[in-house]
């Protein structure tokens, strides 16, 4: 089977690709269809009107309108035809993706089931073929990655990983002496964000606000205060601290710091780090995201909902992240579980609303490395023996 | 049965809109969408790819397309332009350092032919943060007054508290509906 990269557009629906397929098709032609359908019908209506009022002085005008609408309809048909030729419907590509993926997967599994027997050379040849095909399938997924929902992506990754370990197993069985070098990566097993069916009727943006708002979250009164940025910038070789009172669920920015030690004893709503060089930055629980850009040779530690790391090199992160950490344009980022603590941290955790039991510190999405079979070379886990255990000196 | 019924049915079917949510990474696009739909917003990860959500609101069927905003994904935004009725541009009002970046990305989009008919709603998000810029400041920074090609409106909101999300979406629906669903 020939594997093609998916076309330039694609998509899918968390709930049901089928629904969307019809929706989308309808929608796609909406502007044209509306025009042509309506003009069809109105032409019909007007035609009968024309019969009735044949002698009406407006007759010529009506005639003109009919002609115009007819032309519009013809144009619409032309455009639609053209459109069909130059573009494909996204959902068809998703369907195409899953059909192709499933078919190819089944084919490889079938092949794999024949990878045993007396004829060693034949087994080796078949194993080789499954490996090649799996690599092709992986490439197919990689090429389609931008157009797949996270759900589909993780599902196909999981399937590929399972396949990969079956191959390794079969290989070990067939050639027991040879130690195999690579192992399947055991990540991306997190369940997809399952979307409940869309609610019909009223959706109130304000509804359910309490589910997230921690006690003592920003009140209107607070946001009316002078919008001064809390943080530090342009410092070198200093010890910098902020207290919970100063931080107060606000947004904290640290920028252009070098050789500094920073301690933020409190729970910011969000934390931004920009242009950080050789610093040690420790922070209490951050309710939403931490955004890191241009950071090098540093050590960071904090709990947060999301970690977004950009242009960062040789930096250690002691992390508690309840959702996910991502890196983009980074090298030498290494991670370990968050281990700093300070006397009022429990209270700050409560304020932040973060779930202490959910820590995905070792699951990192590298936006520049979508070949999931091999781990991104841009980040790693700090070996236990090398982890920092004491933070105060 | 009659012509009128058919016409009505057709119109009903087409009370459907395609809304595209774009903005820089970390702006709060996915959070806005989930909050609008009354879902838990504490479990959202940065978007690798995109999400689609279809929901009914005020008798309209809204197809929201929420596309990841990381730099490496922005070149794929154009794959989602087709047939867009409304563009929601989400801004992190507290991210002053990337406001210029944000303005540039938006003005690139507005030059796109395939988005030419779309209504533009700008959400000045994260207003719950003390460091957030006002919508007036953002309006100026993004030079919104210079936009002549699209109907636009800027609404300050917070996806965390839910403040003003409905106001913004309702404005957008009204603007689109006036354009699409009223006869010529
Ligand atoms: N304080 C505050 N934080 C917010 C608000 N909206 C979103 N956030 C937080 O901002 C972070 C980013 O939100 P997302 O919804 O993931 O952002 P996005 O625009 O979808 O980002 P990409 O998927 O990378 O393009 C999350 O940690 C959210 O909790 C808001 O109104 N106020
Ligand atoms: Mg997102």
UniProtKB/TrEMBL annotation, chain A:
Coiled coil: none annotated. Residues 220-369 form the C-CAP/cofactor C-like domain. Keywords: Acetylation, Chaperone, Cytoplasm, Phosphoprotein. Residues 1-91, 185-232 are annotated as: Disordered. It comes from the Eukaryota. Gene3D superfamilies: 2.160.20.70, Tubulin Binding Cofactor C, N-terminal domain (1.20.58.1250). Residues 53-90 have a biased composition (Basic and acidic residues). It is found in: Cytoplasm. One of its GO terms (biological process) is post-chaperonin tubulin folding pathway. GO terms for molecular function: tubulin binding. SMART domains: CARP. InterPro entries: C-CAP_CF_C-like, CAP/MinC_C, CARP_motif, TBCC, TBCC_N, TBCC_N_sf, Tubulin-bd_cofactor_C_dom. Residues 37-52 have a biased composition (Polar residues). Tubulin-folding protein; involved in the final step of the tubulin folding pathway. Belongs to the TBCC family. This is Tubulin-specific chaperone C. The lineage of its organism: Eukaryota, Metazoa, Chordata, Craniata, Vertebrata.
Automatic annotation (TrEMBL), chain B:
GO terms for cellular component: centrosome. SMART domains: ARF, RAB, SAR. Its main location: cytoplasm. GTP binds at residues 23-30, 69, 125-128. The keyword Cell membrane does not apply. Mg(2+) binds at residues 30, 47. It is found in: Cytoplasm, Cytoskeleton, Microtubule organizing center, Centrosome. Keywords: GTP-binding, Lipoprotein, Magnesium, Metal-binding, Myristate, Nucleotide-binding. Pfam families: Arf (PF00025). InterPro entries: Arl2, ARL2/3, P-loop_NTPase, Small_GTP-bd, Small_GTPase_ARF/SAR. One of its GO terms (molecular function) is metal ion binding. Belongs to the small GTPase superfamily. Arf family. This is ADP-ribosylation factor-like protein 2.
């Amino acid at each position: 089977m020939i594997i093609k990269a998916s076309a330039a557009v694609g998509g899918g629906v968390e709930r049901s690709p089928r629904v969307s397929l019809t929706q989308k098709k309808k929608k796609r032609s909406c502007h044209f269809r509306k025009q042509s359908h309506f003009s069809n019908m109105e032409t019909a209506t007007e035609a009968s009107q024309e019969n009735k009022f044949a002698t009406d002085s407006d007759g010529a005008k009506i005639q003109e309108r009919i002609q115009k609408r007819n032309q519009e309809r013809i144009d619409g048909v032309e455009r639609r035809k053209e459109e069909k030729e130059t573009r494909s419907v996204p959902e068809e590509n998703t369907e195409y993706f899953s059909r192709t993926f499933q078919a190819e997967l089944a084919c490889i599994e079938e092949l794999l089931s024949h990878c045993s027997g007396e004829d060693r050379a034949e087994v080796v040849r078949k194993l080789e073929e499954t490996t090649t095909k799996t690599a092709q399938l992986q490439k197919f997924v990689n090429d389609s990655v931008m157009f797949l929902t996270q759900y589909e992506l993780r599902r196909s990754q999981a399937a590929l990983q399972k396949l990969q370990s079956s191959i390794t197993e079969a290989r070990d069985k067939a050639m027991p002496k040879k130690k195999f070098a690579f192992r399947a990566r055991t990540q991306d097993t997190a369940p997809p964000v399952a979307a409940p069916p869309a609610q019909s009727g009223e959706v109130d943006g304000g509804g359910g606000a309490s589910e997230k708002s921690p006690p003592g979250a920003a009140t209107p009164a607070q946001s009316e205060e002078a919008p001064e940025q809390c943080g530090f910038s342009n410092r070198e070789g200093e010890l910098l601290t902020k207290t919970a009172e100063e931080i107060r669920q606000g947004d904290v920015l640290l920028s252009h710091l070098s050789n500094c030690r920073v301690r933020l004893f409190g729970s910011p709503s969000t934390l931004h780090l920009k242009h950080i060089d050789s610093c040690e930055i420790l922070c209490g629980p951050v309710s939403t995201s931490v955004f890191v850009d241009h950071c090098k040779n540093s050590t960071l530690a904090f709990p947060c909902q999301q970690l977004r790391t950009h242009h960062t090199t040789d930096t250690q992160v002691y992390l508690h992240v309840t959702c996910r950490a991502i890196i983009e344009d980074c090298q030498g980022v290494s991670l370990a579980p968050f281990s700093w603590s300070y006397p009022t941290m429990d209270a700050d955790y409560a304020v932040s609303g973060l779930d202490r039991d959910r820590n995905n510190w070792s699951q990192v999405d590298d936006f520049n490395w979508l070949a999931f079979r091999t781990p991104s070379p841009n980040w790693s886990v700090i070996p236990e023996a090398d982890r920092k255990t004491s933070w105060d000196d | 049965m009659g012509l009128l019924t058919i016409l009505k049915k057709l119109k009903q079917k087409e009370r459907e809109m395609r809304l595209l949510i774009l903005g820089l990474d970390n702006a709060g696009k996915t959070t806005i969408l989930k909050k609008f739909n009354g879902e838990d917003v504490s479990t959202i990860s940065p978007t690798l790819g995109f999400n689609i959500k279809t929901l009914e609101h005020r008798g309209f069927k809204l197809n929201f397309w929420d596309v990841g905003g990381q730099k490496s994904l922005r070149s794929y935004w154009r794959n989602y332009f087709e047939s867009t009725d409304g563009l929601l541009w989400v801004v992190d009002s507290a991210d002053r350092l990337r406001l210029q970046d944000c303005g540039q990305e938006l003005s690139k989009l507005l030059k796109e032919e395939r988005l030419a008919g779309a209504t533009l709603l700008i959400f000045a998000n994260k207003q719950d943060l003390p460091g957030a810029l006002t919508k007036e400041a953002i309006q100026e920074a993004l030079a919104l007054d210079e936009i002549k090609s699209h109907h636009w409106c800027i609404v300050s909101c917070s996806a965390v508290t839910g403040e003003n999300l409905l106001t913004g979406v309702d404005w957008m629906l009204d603007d689109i509906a006036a354009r699409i669903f009223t006869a010529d």
